[in-house]
Amino acid sequence: MNSDSLSDEIANTVKAAVKAEADKPLVVAVMGQTGVGKSTLINRLFGTNLKTDPVKPCTKEVERVVVKSKDGSELWFYDMPGIGEAADVDAEYLNEYRRILLESDIAMWAIHADMRSVSFDRWALDQIIGSDPDEGRDLLSRITVALTKVDHLAPPPWLYVKDGESGVVIPSEVLLEVIEAKQRYFFESLLAPHAEMLTAATYNDSKWTLQLPGFKYTDDTVTYLGYLGEAEASSLAERYPEHSGLLRRLREFYSVVACSSLLRYNLTPLMISVLNKLGRGAVFRFGSQFTDDVSKLTIAEAKACLNIVVVDEGTRHPIDDMGRSGNKRKHLRKGDHR
Amino acid sequence: MTVSDFSDSSVNPDYIARQLRLLESQKSELEELRRRKGWSEVISFLWNAGATVANFFQVPIPQISAGLIQSAWEKVQQWLAKEKLRSATS
């Protein structure tokens, strides 16, 4: 036995293991109440073409939709029935949700951003997590909470920053404050009650070796047991500025992500959250389904949306108002609108 | 419609610049996360494969670490590049 044949043996074993992982389907499940835009969100994130209906609920039972990408890899999307339509079927659906959640690589909990009451989602999430702390921890570690349809929030407008034939959409300053407040509210209502079950992890790019309560580390990864709140993260970042990026990533690990499928807003942070929570080997399956430009919106698509002000990327000044041609914009600066 | 159709105070260029920088940093972070997660997965596969092979050939683990893992890693990298999986691990 020589060292070359041994390294070939190792290399071949690894190649086979990676290929086996990459050839498996990427399994995605999105949970949430009827009409929150679950199918639309998947269409935007993974370039699929799942059926959507703006009026009637499309999904009445769990349906596995198999989508083949150009390279032959498969994405399995569990199209979940929306909950909250009828109490007697919700319990049955929640059991099904739990089972599928355990089988999925990616699990998202979608909530309509304009929803004021969180009690139903909190009840449903509590039911799914169950009373076993270990299982609850495992289930929570898979879920990304997404606030969908933030384009429904007032006040508009949105800003379309044009770059060539496409661009990106960002909220006005006033709207961003509303969105951030929503994210905090839903985090506090849904996830904070389970803070002791959360575990955030990120890559150790700043050579973390600090022995601090709640933190564990290796050369590759830093883990925080619990939820790293904003005040604690800021205080640590002040004391250890070399780790500020790492601390921010740990703090954002369980953040609620507000997004808009229509405007393709915040889909990159949503992808980051999803990727953070991928289980072992799934990164190779994710890679083959990955869409590079999730936040890009063509001019034609932007024109279909109301209340968008177009801003030139170079000058950063408005050049068009698609929603209200002829009207002058007012009250867009932070603090002007109250 | 031109810029003059809007109030000069309607859009804050500094705010837009900050948001665009944030978008760029998010894209970079997504790429970095993909790369590092892929890389750590391959390392984990390498380590497990090394342990499997060590067991199969009944050699002590230290003998198959370092140089052999490095050599196997390079072969895996070449294969990943050929298979276009490299973006997740390069």
Characterise the protein shown here.
The complex is a heterodimer of chains A (338) and B (90). Chain A is α/β, with parallel strands linked by helices. Chain A has helices spanning 3-23, 38-46, 87-103, 119-129, 133-140, 173-191, 230-239, 244-252, 267-276, 282-289, 299-303, and strands spanning 26-32, 63-68, 74-79, 106-112, 143-148, 158-163, 166-171, 199-203, 215-217, 221-225, 257-258, 297-298, 308-312, 318-321. Chain A contains eleven helices and 14 strands. Chain A has a six-stranded mixed β-sheet, sandwiched between helices. In chain A, strand 9 (215-217) and strand 10 (221-225) form a beta hairpin. Chain A is globular and about 70 Å long. Chain B is mainly alpha-helical and 90 residues long. Chain B has a domain at 34-90. Chain B contains three helices and no strands. Chain B has helices at residues 13-57, 61-64, 67-82. The relative contact order of chain B is 0.10.
Helix content of chain B: over 70%
Distance between termini of chain B? 46 Å
Q: What Rg of chain A is obtained from the alpha carbons, in whole angstroms?
A: 22 Å
Low-confidence stretches of chain B: 1-9
The N- and C-terminal alpha carbons of chain A lie at a distance of 77 Å
- What is the fourth-level CATH superfamily of the domain at 10-152 and 172-195 and 254-290 in chain A? P-loop containing nucleotide triphosphate hydrolases
Largest sheet of chain B: none
Oligomer: heterodimer
The largest pleated sheet of chain A is described as: 6 strands, mixed
The strand count of chain B comes to: 0
Which of globular, elongated, flat, extended, rod-shaped describes the shape of chain B? rod-shaped
Q: Determine the strand fraction of chain A and express it as a percent band.
A: 15-25%
CATH architecture of the domain at 10-152 and 172-195 and 254-290 in chain A: 3-Layer(aba) Sandwich
Shape of chain A: globular
